[in-house]
Amino acid sequence: MRAATLRRLIVLALIVMWELLPRSGLVAELFLPPLSKTLVAGWTDAAEYGHALAVTLYEVAIAMIIACGGGILLGAIIGSLRTPRILLMPMVSSLYAVPLVILYPVFTVWLGIGSESKIAFAAIYGLLPTMLSTAAGIQTIDPQLIVAARSMGATPSQRLLRVIIPAAIPTVLSGLRVGGALVIVGVVVSEMLISSAGIGFLISRYRTVLDSPHVFAGVLLVLAITIAFSAGVRWIERKAAIWQTGTRAGQAAEDDLGSRGLQPATT
């Protein structure tokens, strides 16, 4: 049986169990309402959930841009330069080990309980692993590759595009996956702690009144966001793999021509 088919069967089995276990009385509906009741609750208050989803997506998008873009940029700088790497890497690694959720009250004091504090908290939450992975990926590049590219007259931009980025892409994407997931976690958790809008706020509000169907309707929306993000990262990984293959093939062809004393045709 193919892995994809097996995964679909597992998902289908979980959906069936979600519906049948509460209805059979094996699991109390307070802890796990039937899937049908959860969907009905979400559909009944679709306008409320739609507004909350828009708020959460806005916060996730802004925080994702800051965390992933800033993390890759800072990681590239730290990983490429010896002095910043020696000074900052131990500090960043130690900070990453701290559960940053304990600092969220500080963000609310500085920025209030609106979207600004959620974005700032989630951005920092996701920036650290992205930065560390990017820096680590650049450090794992074989120095001989860069030396060889420099000796062949490659410009800094050519070294960056043809050597450094292709060699570091797998690690960078791994950090992007972790950092992006933590951004989603950071936004939802911060909304659950102190907020007046967003999916996390709805989950927390309905939890206080023991309205399990509405709680799980919010959980389903969070799950949908994470699935969409994961699918997006997989798409980027496929495109990056194709680009890496093409870049390496082109470089190999140029090297072969160079070894024969020929120059590639240009237009």
UniProtKB/TrEMBL annotation:
Domain of life: Bacteria
GO biological process: transmembrane transport
Membrane topology, from the record: Multi-pass membrane protein
Spans traversing the lipid bilayer: 52-74, 86-113, 119-138, 182-203, 215-236
Claim: Phosphoprotein is one of the keywords in the record: no
Limits of the ABC transmembrane type-1 domain: 53-233
Cellular-component GO terms for this entry: plasma membrane
Signal peptide: none
SUPFAM superfamilies: MetI-like
Subcellular location: Cell membrane
InterPro entries noted in UniProt: MetI-like (IPR000515), MetI-like_sf (IPR035906)
Keywords annotated in UniProt: Cell membrane, Membrane, Transmembrane, Transmembrane helix, Transport
One Pfam family it belongs to: BPD_transp_1
PANTHER family associated with the record: ABC TRANSPORTER PERMEASE PROTEIN MJ0413-RELATED, ALKANE SULFONATE ABC TRANSPORTER-RELATED, MEMBRANE SUBUNIT
Family indicated by similarity: Belongs to the binding-protein-dependent transport system permease family.
Protein's recorded name: ABC transporter permease
